# Entry
Amino acid sequence: MAVEFTEENFDEIALNSDKPVLVDFWAEWCGPCRMVGPIVEEIHTEYDGKAIVGKVDVDANPNISQKFGIRNIPTIIFLKNGEMVDKSVGAVPKNVLTEKIDNLL
# Structure
């Protein structure tokens, strides 16, 4: 299962990672988020050991969303060395996301 990022663990796991990080900003009530969720889980499994893949519930963790200027969900950001280097807004196909991760490896 993808990492469940919270305001307590986000800096430690995502910002201090030496691997690329995919962060899926989502909410329970968001229909398109439910479409992207299984794709994020697949990517988590496929990139195990190569990248950190996780999710942020925007309702439960508003400070993380605010820090990255998340206004629409689903939004997926890509971090490298603690910095946001890429972003994808809306429900996108899996290959778009994996291509972005591959570019960071």
Residues 31-46 form the longest helix (16 residues). The first strand starts at residue 3 and ends at 5.
